[in-house]
Design goal:
With 170 residues, the chain is mainly alpha-helical. It folds into two domains: 90 residues, Orthogonal Bundle (Rna Polymerase Sigma Factor, Chain: A); 67 residues, Arc Repressor Mutant, subunit A. It has nine helices and no strands. α2 packs across α4, α7 crosses α9 and α8 crosses α9. The two termini are 31 Å apart. This is RNA polymerase sigma-70 factor, ECF subfamily. Belongs to the sigma-70 factor family. ECF subfamily.
C-alpha cells in the first residue's frame, strides 16, 4: 500500500485511483455518519477526493495516507454541515432507497442519531473507532490529540450513549 502512495505522490493517477477505491467504503461510512444522507455523503467524498488529488504531493510520509485522507474527509464533512446547517429528516420511503441501510434495525438508526447528538469531539472519536475500525492510536493521530485524550473522549461518549439507551452498547 505504501508503494502505491509513493507512486501517487509522484503523480501516478492510476495509483491514486487504486488508493481511493480501496478506501471508498470507509470514506462513505464516515461521511454518512456525519450527514445521514446518501447524496450529501457522496458530495463530501467527491470534494475529499478532489482535495486529496490536488494536494497529495504535500503528504509528508506515505504511511500516514489513511490518516491524512480521513482528516480531509472529516474537515469537509464539518464544513459541509456548518455551511448547510440543516437537519435532514428521513422518511420511510427514503430509507428503503438507501442500499447501505438495508437490513439495519431501527435500533442501529437510533444509535446513529444518538451519536450525532454528542459533542463534536466525542462524536469524532466514536465514528472513527467504530465505523472506521481504527485503533485508539490511529484515532489520536487523525484527530491530532494524545491517545489518553482519545480514550477519555471515547469513554465519555460511550457513557452518554449508554445512559441514553439505558444499556450496554458495544
Amino acid at each position: 500500500m505504501e508503494d502505491k502512495v509513493c507512486l501517487a505522490m509522484g503523480g501516478d493517477e492510476e495509483a491514486f485511483t487504486y488508493l481511493i477505491n480501496s478506501k471508498k467504503e470507509q470514506l462513505y461510512r464516515t461521511a454518512f455518519a456525519y450527514v445521514k444522507n446518501k447524496e450529501d455523503a457522496l458530495d463530501i467524498i467527491q470534494e475529499t477526493v478532489y482535495k486529496a488529488y490536488i494536494s497529495i504531493d504535500k503528504l509528508k510520509e506515505s504511511k500516514y495516507f489513511n490518516t491524512w485522507l480521513t482528516r480531509i474527509l472529516i474537515n469537509n464533512a464539518i464544513t459541509f454541515i456548518n455551511k448547510n446547517s440543516k437537519i435532514v429528516y428521513l422518511e420511510e420511503n427514503e430509507l428503503k432507497d438507501m442500499s447501505h441501510l438495508e437490513n439495519k434495525s431501527d435500533e442501529k438508526l437510533d444509535l446513529l442519531y444518538a451519536v450525532d447528538k454528542l459533542e463534536e469531539k466525542l462524536k469524532k472519536v466514536i465514528i472513527l473507532k467504530y465505523l472506521n475500525d481504527l485503533t485508539i492510536s490511529e484515532v489520536a493521530k487523525v484527530l491530532e490529540i494524545p491517545e489518553g485524550t482519545a480514550k477519555t473522549y471515547l469513554n465519555k461518549g460511550l457513557s452518554k450513549l449508554k445512559i441514553h439507551f439505558g444499556k450496554e452498547l458495544i
